[in-house]
Amino acid sequence: MQAKCYTNKTMGRPDIQAFAGALDMHRAKKGVFITTSGFSKDALEYVGLIEKRIVLVDGKQLTELMLTHNLGVSTKQVFEVKALDSDYFIED
């Protein structure tokens, strides 16, 4: 697994190739590459061409996963949602 915290740098094919090489050194067949930014088109295409299974998680997916699993987030405000009680309007 590798994680990068960048705001303005898109991860490119060379970054993924280097990660795939690191997986080879550890005889791993699978890996996860996480970035707070995004991946270039070449990087996404490269992952589809190689035998290794590399899962790419970009900033948007990471944010969604964090919100879904309540990880690294805090509740700032809770809203109360009201609905009309239809039984209230029924005359006996």
TrEMBL record:
A GO molecular function held by the record: restriction endodeoxyribonuclease activity
Question: Does the keyword Hydrolase feature in the UniProt annotation?
Answer: yes
Query: Any keyword Nuclease?
Result: yes
GO BP annotations of the record are:
DNA restriction-modification system
Query: What sequence ranges are listed for the domain Restriction endonuclease type IV Mrr?
Result: 2-66
Keywords recorded for this protein, A-Z: Endonuclease, Hydrolase, Nuclease
Protein name, please? Restriction endonuclease
Native organism: Pseudoalteromonas fuliginea
